[in-house]
Amino acid sequence: MTAFDLTIRGGTVATDQSVFRADIGIIGERIAAVEPALPAGLRDLDASGRLVLPGGIDTHCHVEQRSGMGMMGADDWYSASVSAAFGGTTMIVPFAAQHRGTSLRQAAHDYAALAAAKSVIDYSYHLIVSETDPTTLHEDLVELIRSGITSFKVYMTYDALKIDDAQLLDVFALATRERALVMVHAENNDVIRWVSQRLLERGHTAPKFHGTSHVALAEAEATHRVIRLSTLFDAPILIVHVSASDALATIEAARRIGTQVYGETCPHYLLLTADAMDQPGMEGAKYCCSPPLRDAAAQEALWRALKDGVLQVVSSDHAPYRFDRSGKLPYGDETTFKQMANGMPGLEARLPLLFSEGVVKGRLTLPEFVALSSTNHARMYGIHPRKGNLSAGADADIAIWNPDRQVTLTAHALHDRTGYTPYEGTRVTGWPDTVVSAGRVIVEHGVLDAAPGSGRFIPRTAPLPFTTSRQPSEQARFYRSLALGQQAGGGDFGAAYGNAI
Ligand code: URP
Ligand code: ZN
Ligand code: ZN
């Protein structure tokens, strides 16, 4: 009989497919057996009365990253990864951001060093591409994708980060050839700028006007436009942080006709509404993110979209800006809605909120919860079956989940460094008692046992859309060739379709 280093016995295992009684045996960093009855290992965890889940994977969080406006988030790789672990998340995938005029390769290199020194859980990172010059696109980006960073984000808004439609086309052509997933922040920059200017001219500076300026129309228009642009090359894209019903309807319609568009939403869009921004003084700034919080109808539509598979992943979009001059209030009480850092914290509470509001309230089944919080992330971003999976051979990343544990969320009790939580006082049902990362018990009895730098970089393979046998349309082949056929490394497209140009 194999001797396990660690066993988890007596629990109910939940995967994205099913829920069943099984013990889990772990040898080293990996799961070695999942069977109805296993003998105790060198160390034995009693999971009776508990759910045994794949650890959460958060593929949209901002960690030790400077925003486009120059604000530094409060969390570094240590505090963010610790906070994630306490909430049952065992892998994070934040962003190495290229700021204009800087090298993408250097940004990734510097970011990798920070992560390697501090993360207590496994990690990868996406890139943020803000330039599309030949060095960025055809040297740095290609090299980074080929080294296992198989996704990157682009912005259609924020003056300091946005790329225009022609640049989007360049990016899509390259990403398609290199089999990388493009994550898109879809909001129309000109609409937001136009409304913002008029609001400010009239003295409307309060936080709630952030919502007025980031009108749902801006999200819907950009979502529609970027989906249409992506189809020129049949390029898969993922729209991040979907918040508005109109944008959602656009994604749904596109998917219905076979367009390769995927979508993400976040707990704050499911649980909070725009009126949170409308509070006395600057308090509303805590709830300002982009796209902004919407209304109850949008929440209903988002829950439905999770259930129907129109959206595939729920991420935190953890953006930990402190409620002081370093983040939300650079000019104190004089800060206008246009000057404050956008975003809110959410790494640690993501799984508990989704479980409590989704599973406990009957909106999601347990397998749907596992899919949305873990397995779909692994598939989407090229880390399945290693992650998000409780089969033999997978990394032993596990949350032993107490489905009855009630926790009142407070900034004080959470482990990030933002200093506030938008969920202060919210009671959730369901919390991880014990968290296992690559075979190590890293959280138990509310105590962390993991050293900075003990997490590992996980190189990623091709994202989900590239794992099917789908063939691009004739039109897409032609335009891919037009984009890349003459470029160094244009490869097959140039060879096969060069004559068509
Ligand atoms: O408001 C947000 N979401 N801030 C974080 C940056 C981003 O665009 O995701
Ligand atoms: Zn964004
Ligand atoms: Zn974000």
Defining traits:
501 residues, Urease, subunit C, domain 1, TIM Barrel, seven-stranded mixed beta sheet, seven-stranded parallel beta sheet, 14 helices, binds N-(aminocarbonyl)-beta-alanine, binds zinc ion
What would you say this structure looks like, in words?
This protein is an alpha/beta fold and 501 residues long. It folds into 3 domains: 6-54 and 396-448, Roll (Urease, subunit C, domain 1); 56-389 and 459-464, Metal-dependent hydrolases (TIM Barrel, Alpha-Beta Barrel), CATH 3.20.20; 471-500. Helix content is 32%, strand content 19%. The chain contains 14 helices and 21 strands. The chain has helices at residues 77-86, 104-118, 134-146, 165-178, 189-201, 208-213, 216-231, 245-256, 267-271, 296-308, 350-360, 366-380, 474-484, 491-497, and strands spanning 6-9, 12-14, 19-21, 23-27, 30-35, 43-46, 51-54, 56-58, 89-92, 95-97, 122-123, 126-128, 151-155, 181-185, 237-239, 261-265, 313-314, 398-408, 427-437, 440-444, 447-448. The strands form 4 sheets. The protein has a 7-stranded mixed sheet. Helix 1 (77-86) links the parallel strand 8 (56-58) and strand 9. Helix 7 (216-231) packs parallel to helix 8. The longest helix is centred in the middle third of the chain and has 16 residues, at 216-231. Mean pLDDT is 96; it is low at 487-491 and 493-501. One zinc ion binds at residues 60, 62, 317, 319.
